[in-house]
Amino acid sequence: MPKKIKLIYVFTLFIFLLLLSACSSPSNKESLSEASTKEIVMNIGVQGKTGILPYAREKKYFEKAFEKVGVKIKWNEFTSGPPHFEALASGRIDFGVVGGTPVIAGQSGNVDFKAIAVTSDGKKGNSIIVPKGSAIKKLADLKDKKIGVAKGSSAYNFLYMALDRASLSDHDIEIIQLQPDEARPALDNGSIDAWSIWEPYATTAVFQTGAKVLVTGEDLNINAPSFLIARTKFTEEHPDLTVQFLKIYEQVRQHFDENIEEVSKEISETQKVEVKIIQSVLDNSEAILSSTTEEFAKAHQEQADFLYSVGGIEKQLKTSKIIENKFVDQALREIKEE
Length: 338
Hints:
Low-confidence stretches: 1-37
Radius of gyration: 20 Å
Structural class: alpha/beta
Number of strands: 10
Strand content: 15-25%
Distance between the termini: 52 Å
Strand order of the largest sheet: 7-6-8-5-9
Shape: globular
């Protein structure tokens, strides 16, 4: 094993912010019919422009479905996974989709949430890319290079797992903390030598600038599932609304899967991006909606164990404690029966 990777400060700071902003709310279960007697605001976190939730927001899928039962939809936009948890802890969002690393940090910080479904196996979702003409050809070539990454994101953990495969550590590289909108210009102008990033940013850079993919999670056989997360208090107070949320999510996902060309064209027009780029992004994203199977649970636990082994989190986690399958199981069952 390489030297201990010094992530403690980053995660400790992130967790501290989560704890500062955490708040509580009363809990009482109520049915979908009871929920319709008063206005409820459902806050949904969203990031990026090409996934299931961004598309649903554009087409108002959730608004149309929930207005029938008096539920108002409010969207909250974030640049990456970690800010989702700060908002989740303070009660500002109820649902969101994030990578496995923010989920681990959230659990380590005692945020009250549940991972209620798996939305991607994560194999193609993260990659390390280098600019056109780069002399970097393999992971070992990253030594002494500047690498941009959003700290605390799924791409952050992916970077360290990739470094570990090449027997490198953080002492061998210089990590530059950059959100996606900052990292892309830095890669283009040569301020960084490589970028660890998720979709759609990786594919967009490849098509638009000739950047090259150095390695993906699929190349390294890293199964790092992404999750649909929910504020525990919301699921306790509104279990039927939680199931309905998942059913709508799955309806949008199925529309994606069955109409990939049409969806790609629609997103292309709204985002002013070439259709071939959008279609490639969607192909690489491979959206699913699944319960957390034994395979996904094992992969997520291994990810948490890795972070603990390199000092990324200060305590060993039993990740199954935040996994809750009953809502997605019910949603998928009801869809099948309809």
